[in-house]
Design goal:
Elements lengths: L1 E14 L3 E8 L3 E7 L18 E7 L5 E10 L2 H5 L1 H17 L7 H15 L4 H15 L19 E4 L4 E4 L10 E3 L1 H12 L12 H19 L4 H17 L1
Parallel strand pairs: 3-5
Antiparallel strand pairs: 1-2, 1-4, 2-3, 4-5, 6-7, 6-8
């Protein structure tokens, strides 16, 4: 059976001398793997369409085994992302994070739209660190891990200062700090921005300026929370961390 479907390429791996196995994420069918025969050949029409982050229409033939891509039409190549090593690293981290948090052939239309928006906003030059925090919050929420950020997770109070408790899954007011000796301190700005990001979608995010100290607090909170509840240890994140360190050294 032939099916034409819109999707984003999450990842590929070589199969034999000239073929690729391509994992595509779609709105209607979730993610699934298909064979792209001859895609590694220099003159293959499928070569460009099966690059990571590419949005396209894919004509797939499915039978009893793995499906096969017979034709592909590129809608958005995101070539600018792939030409910038740091942007590529951010996009690769998001895609790998998502890939590990969703199941095969389970539709996730909201996450599909989220990924499209993330890639477009990154290419438009929006702060990738803030985008990363939005992405992590949304993907975690879809998996049932939504941190409590509106008020103290223990007493429901709203008085500052706040800290974040990974163990309790949300922010703590100063009266409840004793509940978690391993709490993560939060500035007023960090607590406010984290709450705003939980409600925000990437397409609503313009050019924002967030202090480096605040950025680091947000990253630490989300990393600790994600590590605790998902257990993911991604090589793509390690690579991104190294690039950010190297980039920071170059700026000094």
């Amino acid at each position: 059976m032939l099916t034409k479907i819109e999707g984003v390429v999450l990842r590929t791996r070589d199969y034999g001398e000239s073929n690729k196995i391509v994992t595509i994420f779609t709105r209607e069918q979730g993610k699934f793997a298909v064979m792209a025969r001859g895609a590694k050949k220099p003159k293959s029409r499928l070569g460009a369409a099966t690059q990571p982050f590419t949005l396209g229409f894919f004509l797939c033939f499915s039978g009893s085994g793995m499906g096969t891509i017979t034709q592909a039409e590129i809608l958005e190549s995101h070539v600018h992302l792939r030409s910038d090593l740091l942007y590529t690293a951010y996009a690769a981290y998001w895609v790998k994070y998502l890939d590990n948090m969703i199941q095969e052939k389970e539709p996730a239309p909201l996450l599909y739209e989220l990924l499209l928006s993330m890639l477009n906003r990154l290419e438009a030059g929006v702060d990738p660190e803030i985008l990363s925090r939005i992405f992590e919050l949304r993907v975690l929420e879809s998996a049932g891990y939504r941190p409590h950020l509106d008020r103290c997770v223990s007493c429901r109070g709203t008085e500052e200062p706040f800290a974040f408790s990974v163990q309790m899954g949300g922010i703590l007011c100063s009266n409840c700090f004793y509940r978690d000796p391993h709490r993560i301190p939060l500035s007023s700005a960090s607590a406010r921005i984290l709450k705003q990001l939980q409600r925000m979608t990437p397409d609503r995010l313009g050019q924002v300026q967030v202090r480096e100290e605040t950025q680091l607090q947000l990253e630490r909170v989300m990393r600790c929370f994600s590590d605790e509840y998902t257990g993911l240890k991604l090589k793509s994140r390690i690579f991104l961390d190294q690039l950010k360190r190297d980039w920071g050294k170059e700026r000094k």
